[in-house]
Amino acid sequence: MSILTETYTLSNGVEIPKLGLGTWLIADDKAAAAVRDAVEIGYRNIDTAQAYGNERGVGEGIHTSGTPREDLFVSTKLAAEIKDYDQAVAAIDGSLAKLKLDYVDLMLIHSPQPWNDFRGGDYAEGNRQAWRALEDAHSAGKLRAIGVSNFEQHDLENILSSGTVTPHVNQLLVHAGNTPTDLLAYCDGRNILVEAYSPIAHGEILNNPDVAAMAEKYGVSVPQLCIRYTLQLGTVSLPKTANPEHMRSNAQVDFVVSDSDMNALRNLHARDYGDASVFPVYRGK
Fold first, then answer.
1. Which residues carry the site feature described as Lowers pKa of active site Tyr (predicted)?
2. pLDDT per residue over 160-205, tens digit each?
3. What does DSSP assign to residue 33?
4. In this model, does residue 246 exceed pLDDT 90?
5. What is the mean pLDDT of residues 236-263?
6. Is the pTM of this model over 0.70?
7. Nearest to 195 by CA among 215, 222, 175, 166
8. Which residues of 235-267 are buried (b: 16+ CB within 10 A; e: fewer)?
9. Residue 100 burial (CB count, 10 A)
10. Is 110 one of the annotated binding-site residues?
């Protein structure tokens, strides 16, 4: 069985493919081709966001892929700056319009804080309002599942304290070198599936000699090892690429990382993201 046909089941019974295509930094005019290439290769899980500015292109790729809509799992994210119920309602409908879809399989609050104040001020009430908008859209059938992204334990507890739906997903920065073990365990204990974005550490882990040596031992590439690691953690893996060859390679992960090597990767600390450190999620705030 190919990893592209394997799924997890969310707490509400919705199935989500274990491997997906991330589309961050893929321009809107290139997104349709990337999505079509991925779907042709066998990907069924496509992840975008309002902040990526490519929902239109992703939607075009979905509509022109030749694959029935119901066979695809499409995710998007509510802009991090939206911390108000009415604005969130409008933005949810805006995503559906840009994607030209009647429903989205998963929608997330992109961050507990606006990007210009990431890990900064208190937006607890705004997150509760945004979550209520997602819950209402979920009840209306516009969203099959709802969740959050970049939420730490106290952010999740804020949602759990007032919401009627426990988040189905928490999408987090997870990779060999940055494994938030306690948060993963907290989510697992509440049936919140974790999606791992940047499983290849925005490419910087390619320069790590220890990881390269381990990959060589398994006869695989560093990206393949890193993707397999996140899958064995029990997360959805969302490597980003517009390159069809990389898409194919990223899906060739039918090997098993040993327990001792999993522990070594879990205990690895490698959080130097090079030029990507300009982005809030990589700043280590």
1. 77
2. 999 999 999 999 999 999 999 999 999 999 999 999 999 999 888 9
3. H
4. yes
5. 97
6. yes
7. 175
8. bbbbbbbbeeeebebbbebeeebeeebbeebee
9. 12
10. yes
Describe the crossing of helices 209-218 and 222-232 by its angle, rounded to 10 degrees.
80
Distance CA 172, CA 199 (A): 10
Q: Which two tokens stand for residue 273?
A: 């993201």
CA dist 149 → 67, 112, 173 (Å): 28, 8, 9
Assign domain 3-201+234-243 one CATH number from 1.10.10.10, 3.40.50.20, 3.40.605.10, 3.20.20.100.
3.20.20.100
Q: Which of 43, 52, 123, 229 is catalytic?
A: 52
Tell me phi and psi for residue 176, to 5 degrees: -55, 120
Which position has the token pair 């049936």? 191
| Amino acid at the residue 113 | Q
Spatial contact of 172 and 149, defined as CB atoms under 8 Å apart:
yes
